[in-house]
Design a protein that fits this description.
Oligomer: single chain
Radius of gyration: 22 Å
Shape: globular
Bound molecules: pyridoxal-5'-phosphate
CATH topology of the largest domain: Aspartate Aminotransferase, domain 2
Structural class: alpha/beta
Strand content: 5-15%
CATH superfamily of the largest domain: Type I PLP-dependent aspartate aminotransferase-like (Major domain)
Number of domains: 2
CATH class of the largest domain: Alpha Beta
CATH architecture of the largest domain: 3-Layer(aba) Sandwich
Helix content: 25-40%
Number of helices: 14
Number of strands: 12
């Protein structure tokens, strides 16, 4: 039989499409879905060898599964990673990446501008196990090095951050992490490997919520941790026993999604850039924020480390909290939903929803102003997206 190997010299776009679990005797074209919890052995010797790690035979889908492996291999090709472990959600990826490396007495240095549930894990749960944390302001990178303590084990950052779209220089941060022998863990959810590859900039670990742009159609939850094999092995050891593994069904959906990730991110970025440019200067808005606008405070860094701005545009509507809510009520096309990174455009108002439980002072520290609106720009015709936003701005006066 003709052997078709996926050549490592192929471009990541090609690899994300062509890496596939080995063909079965049916010679299927598309990768099959191995929806099975466990795997069988011909005899007791084969079973013994599998459990003794002498073969790479599959054992149990909490450890590994061919469909999940396909997704992991595709993500490794995209991020330029040696190894990966896929999880049930983005939060289990973030949590697994913390628990694999942090123990009682250790210190985590994290950006303050992070996803809400990550903030909860860091401030409410890690301290229960005696793991300390310090937050830094990612817009003041010169303050970070002084916050590293002898027990600091990890630096965690999201860039661009959710929802504030702050950007930090990953290569510079990686230098600091290396100098102090600290693991640099980057949540690359907003950029995706299409627009930014943290490992190539010196990060040690990349974490993802695959629920967002990677799925791209708001169907399944998923997450992944990627990096050098020796590090991912630690994450695997923790997750294999504690059980946050990705379902083969979700992996199958997400692998199909990766085949269109490049063309989708190009379109999301193109429409988001057009939206940001069109809205900048709009009389209903205080400001518009998007990494590829020259007015973005870290625009130069974004241009250097990202090949596109991504699909999220933020703006501050004049009139604060109440006007923000009125704006949502006037939208006709855009969805009001908690997700982002969908083919359907979404509007959200963090101050009255995801971040409503925080005090106003804490919201401001994470960059959540009262009239902040986050738009996840979808794949609809651009004219329809902007028309809906403009009419809702007008009608919410
Ligand atoms: C959504 C999100 C997460 C959490 O992912 P889930 O799949 O919802 O668990 C983590 N980080 C960022 C930046 C996110 O946007």
């Amino acid at each position: 039989m003709k052997k078709r190997k996926n050549k490592p010299t192929y471009h990541p776009e090609t690899q994300a499409i062509r890496i596939q679990s080995e063909r079965t005797s049916h010679m299927e074209h598309s990768g099959p879905l191995y929806l099975t919890s466990s795997f069988c052995y011909e005899d007791s010797e084969a079973m013994r060898a599998a459990f003794a790690d002498e073969t790479d035979a599959f054992i149990y889908s909490r450890f590994s599964n061919p469909t999940v492996d396909e997704f992991i291999q595709r993500m490794c090709a995209l991020e330029g990673a040696e190894s990966g472990f896929a999880t049930a959600s983005g939060m289990s990826a973030v949590f697994g990446s913390f628990m694999a490396f942090l123990k009682t007495g250790d210190h985590l240095l994290s950006s303050q501008s992070i996803f809400g549930s990550t903030h909860t894990v860091i401030t409410k749960f890690l301290p229960k196990w005696g793991i300390e944390y310090t937050y830094f302001d990612m817009t003041k990178p010169e303050t970070i090095e002084a916050l590293i303590k002898p027990n600091t084990k990890m630096i965690f950052v999201e860039t661009p951050s959710n929802p504030g779209l702050d950007v930090i220089d990953l290569a510079a941060l990686a230098k600091i992490a290396k100098k102090h022998k600290v693991i640099l863990n980057v949540d690359n959810c907003f950029a995706t490997p299409v627009l930014q590859k943290p490992l190539s900039l010196g990060a040690d670990l990349v974490t993802h919520s695959a629920t967002k742009w990677i799925d791209g159609q708001g169907r399944v939850l998923g997450g992944i941790v990627l990096g050098r094999k020796e590090l991912v092995d630690e994450v695997y050891a923790f997750c294999r026993s504690t059980g946050p593994s990705m379902s083969p069904f979700n992996a199958w959906v997400l692998s199909r999604s990766l085949e269109t990730l490049h063309i989708r991110m190009a379109r999301h970025s193109e429409s988001a850039t057009s939206l940001a440019k069109a809205l900048e200067g709009n009389p209903h808005l205080e400001w518009v924020k998007y990494p590829m606008l020259a007015s973005h405070p870290q625009h130069e860094i974004a241009k250097q480390q990202m090949t596109g701005g991504g699909g999220i545009v933020c703006f501050e509507i004049k009139g604060g909290l109440e006007r923000g809510r009125r704006f949502l009520d006037q939208l006709e096309l855009l969805s009001l939903t908690a997700n982002l990174g969908d083919s359907r455009s979404i509007a959200s108002h963090p101050a009255s929803t995801t971040h409503a439980k925080l005090s106003e002072a804490d919201r401001l520290k994470s960059g959540i102003t009262p009239g902040l609106i986050r738009i996840s720009v979808g794949l609809e015709h651009f004219s329809d997206i902007i028309a809906d936003i403009e009419q809702a701005l007008e009608a919410s006066k």
